[in-house]
Amino acid sequence: GGAGLLIPALSSEAQAQATDIDPTTIPKFAQEMPVPETLKPDRISGTTAYYSFEMQEVETEIIPGKQTTVRTFDGHFPGPWIKACSGHRVVVTQKNNLPSPTSIHLHGGHVPESSDGTPMDLIQPGGEKTYTYPNSQPNANLWFHDHAHHVESENVFRGLTGFYTLMDLPEKALGLPSGAYDLPIAIRDARFDDNGQLIYQMNDFRGRNVILANGKAWPYFEVAARKYRFRLYNTANMRFFTLKLSDGSTVQQIGGDGGLLEAPVTTDKISITSGERADVVIDFSKYPVGTNVEIVNTENVPAGVPPTPVLQFRVTRTAADYSKVPAKLRTLPALPAPTVNRNVVLRVDENSADGMGYIDEKVYDHTRVDNTIKYGDTEVWTVSNVNQRVPHNFHIHLVQFRVLERNGVPVTSGPETGLKDTVRLMPGEKIKVQATFTGYRGKYVYHCHMFDHAAMGMMATMEVV
Ligand code: C2O
Ligand code: CU
Questions:
Q1: 340-464 belongs to CATH 2.60.40.420
Q2: What's the pTM?
Q3: How many CB atoms lie within 10 A of CB 54?
Q4: Which residues form the Plastocyanin-like domain (predicted)?
């Protein structure tokens, strides 16, 4: 395969000898969670907004009192936040001043191949590339991250992610919480040495035991006693989150990967696998000022063990609230009749730490086309995780898809009824997803979105012709 091409030696090996920080020594809820910085374009011409970023390493405080070197867009950790409008183009020039090649992918974006950030479309150190995003899709919770073949996993782990909110007028008219009451939160895990530097090792699920929200370890966030809209992003390489409020309260999930759901879902748990998003409204108006309530993660926590904290909300004030969550948020397009069925099988080597990953029993090779799709066709893909113990998820570039079935049961309610680009597959699970391939022709990838698995080869190429 192409796994060795143009790839520098990973910088992590020497560091793997370092001693891990003891996570219990990191104070909980001692730092304030930042709101990602919304960037103004460098210039606007007609309906196109132009941005430029320099990918660079900077030092930042993730753990109180320690400096950590991270890889960033323009020094932002968490990443910068681009707000774009449906129908208005965004052009981003990315200059690479990192010690690694990069390729910047707009996750969930409907974009031409030349701007998709495919794994071998590399920006070498010192180089730059301009990406054009037509934004010819409705409201969506997108993000951008490195996708350079075999090094995306380390680059993302070291910070190379950013937020991209695509808004449209029908969404605006709904009156959902907005302005300071609408913000993205990137939730992930990480591993640190006792100097506060990140330790990256491939497929290192167990080592990554510090949880970050918007780039801080276990932060707090002060809120008013009113409704907030949080766009939750799972930017962890491999960890899945099933999030709950510590008092068991319900929240309203209003959207996911591909924007708003048809109707809000009232739920006491929010599931996001690596790369997935959940758009959630939490109403703090029932809490007296002075109340603290945490987001906790219940995924992979054995029965009887308390769930692990993520983030603490502190209700510190009251505020007027004219926002609402309408009972009807959107009408999704009717599902066209599919004309093609395919099977996709996901697997990693379960019994060796440095195993390979496979789609349809093949390791990713960028020179190979694995599926040819006729432009305009509607296809149903039956995707199976044949592993016994390892979860996966599944992400397709270019399209937003619909989940038809999970383990033979039609998906008719809940957050998976929305437009999706990434979907969970626990060991042994099988799902059916449907997508219509329009807009652009060309080669795009689909893969497990656990970045370490993708880097281990769990990725394939489709060509829309
Ligand atoms: Cu978020 Cu192909 O990736
Ligand atoms: Cu996987």
A1: yes
A2: 0.95
A3: 15
A4: 56-166, 225-289, 357-464
Domain ranges in the chain are 14-19+28-168, 179-317, 340-464
Give CA–CA dist 293/305, Å, rounded.
19
Q: What is the ipTM of this complex?
A: 0.97
Q: What CATH class has 179-317? A: mainly beta
DSSP for 114-145, please give it.
Answer: GGS--TTS-B-TT-EEEEEE---S-SEEEEEE
Task: Work out which ligand 1 atom sits closest to the CA atom of 445.
Answer: 2
What distance in angstroms lies between residue 318's CA and the mean position of ligand 1's atoms? 40
At position 211, the amino acid (one-letter code) is I
Q: Label residue 279 exposed, middle or buried (CB < 10 Å: 0-12, 13-18, 19+).
A: buried
Per-residue pLDDT reduced to its tens digit, 123-170 = 999 999 999 999 999 999 999 999 999 999 999 999 999 999 999 999
What pLDDT score does 183 carry? Answer: 98
- Separation of 397 CA from ligand 1 center, angstroms? 7
What CATH number matches the domain at 14-19+28-168, 2.60.40.420, 1.10.630.10, 3.40.50.720, 3.30.1660.10? Answer: 2.60.40.420
Instruction: Pull the structure tokens for residue 415.
Output: 């957050």
Enumerate residue ranges in the chain where pLDDT < 70: 1-17
How much distance in Å is there from the Cα of 53 to the middle of ligand 2?
30
Q: Assess whether the C-beta atom of 275 lies below 6 angstroms from ligand 1.
A: yes
CB 423 within 8 A of CB 463: no
